[in-house]
What we know:
This protein is mainly alpha-helical. The chain contains 17 helices and two strands.
Amino acid sequence: MDEQKKNKITRKAVQAGFALGTNAHLTGFVTGRIYDGPLKQFCVPGMNCYSCPGALGACPIGSMQAMLSARRPKAPFYVLGYLTLIGVFVGRFICGWLCLFGLMQELLYKIPTPKLTVPAKADRMLRKLKYVFLVLFVFLFPLILRDEMGVSFPYFCKWICPVGMLEGGIPLVALNEAMRGAAHFLYAWKMAILAVIVVLSVVIHRPFCKYICPLGAFYGLFHRVSFLKLRCDTSACIKCGRCAKTCKMQVDPSCHPDSAECIRCSECVKVCPTKALSFGMGAAFGKEKAGAGRMIKN
């Protein structure tokens, strides 16, 4: 088994294991009751719906909106600090290795069908949408759009999030007769969004991650300063293009190793024939790689 295939299997096993570990309240899938124990006070690092019957922790995006949309809004210092800490240490590594919805999209993309290539110009524009969702639906709308009672809503969770629909909406409605009777337009709207994401995932690699996910957008802001680094030794790089062809997030690691679109899956590292690409932690790692390149050139 080659290194690339082994890495793919390992990564998917880690994704699946983390998903099971953070959704281990299995009785919830039988009773239709959400776990509300002490672990629910803590956020998991990835998108994982609070209302999922198996969820042991809270979703950071949902928690942030809940604090902002309360009648007396509170600054989400805990959630912002928690996410910033993750971003500073590992960037979007969470997206590539721990996200259940990311795993689902990757498995759907494996279905043997013709694949869709989004034109480069349109792709660049569409990737900015996730920052729009982050700023508007996660921060501004819950904070400023309020009813006459001064109450707001977690707008991204309520109107957009397909993760919440998949993990929370569908299981809860299926297990609770009362909820089935109350499922009307909003349920149909969210189901339609999920269906579109599922269909697109068959022909486009990780469309939710590329164009919509506000959590990926937030983590991506820290890629240039995160401790986990992807580095390219330019003295060893032969410009063969194998890393860029391998990257399904359409990143060229040899030119842009710190791109905010990189999910740190490490597949580019495994296919590099000269070992020019490598992962490491801390600022010293970047200096060592740069120093090694200068020594070889001299």
